[in-house]
Design goal:
390 residues; alpha/beta; TIM Barrel; Four Helix Bundle (Hemerythrin (Met), subunit A); eight-stranded parallel β-barrel; 14% strand
Length: 390
Amino acid sequence: MVAAPAREGAYGMAHAGTEFPQGAGRSKPAITGFAAWASAIGENTRFIAPTRARPEMPNPPEKASSHSPWRLSVAPMMDWTDRHCRYFHRLLTRHALLYTEMVTTGALLHGEVPRHLRFNAEEHPVALQLGGSEPADLAQAARLGAEWGYDEINLNCGCPSERVQRGAFGACLMNEPQLVADCVKAMVDVVDVPVTVKHRIGIDKVENYDFVRDFVGAVAEAGCKVFIAHARNAWLQGLSPKENREVPPLRYELVHRLKRDFPHLVIAINGGFTASAQIAEQLAVLDGVMVGREAYHNPWSMAGWDADFYGAAPSIQTREDVEEAMVAYMEREAAAHGTPWYAVARHMLGLRNGLPGARYWRRVWSDHRLKSLPAREVMAQARQPLHELA
């Protein structure tokens, strides 16, 4: 195992990147920053002892946020929120919590661990989402995630895809709350970072609030203090994953009821948010909002989050500044890992949405005929008509 770098993220404390052998204990730190905040929601949340701070971020936070770490987050999205995407998103918001794509326990226990867990120090705070249903396997995978330096371990109980169902995890786990509780307890027992659950509000066409209330109650008893609820049912048959994000109706009021019934838990909501006004409305009654497709397709919307929701000074960076930073990142990735620039650029194609010349700019950055060119030359081509419009 390669040890992850130590760092101090927006969670407000440094975490050790040291690899711990199985069974080794970790000393408790003085409770400060994020640790102090999270300790207020439960004694079962534990923390890695602080060591040294991580290298400076491109846009370092002026100070640790006093807000809930789950106040704003970008959803885990398969094939989208890889480490390149998360680096890009971190250039736009310093404080929002970022999530990995779902990583299965099998991929970590039987595959190439660095390929799945490597990330950039600048991404903090960043959470690892796991997919699995065997408590022992999840415990081992969670331990790996904590050792690699992730700030949170999240269990996927919301994905309805047939492939995930064949693995007996994702949304179908909501039918087995005691198994989910066992999985959560197994992870809580071996890691010193928060263990959270992302779930739906129901399965198939069962729209009884008692179903999700009892699920949250059972899992909370196992030590989970944070729940991110996608405010739609998951239909396990008859709908594609895409349709499952659109066809089942949004029912925000059920998530609001969860917060009223479990005021001591952190309850965040996910599903259908496209504007800051919608986010603000939810934050008036809930602890956090998770944004998915809107953040990916219209990433510049995140540029105002820190000022709007964290009290930060308005950002003065431009889209051009972000593009320059991404090209520098592409150059570093190519030198360090042989990563082609187009594997990174695909995540930023929405950066100029709504602006004159955006279509041409997007077409250049996605032109397969330019793959042999250095990223900086591609940027020059993409910007040429923009200079003419200026």
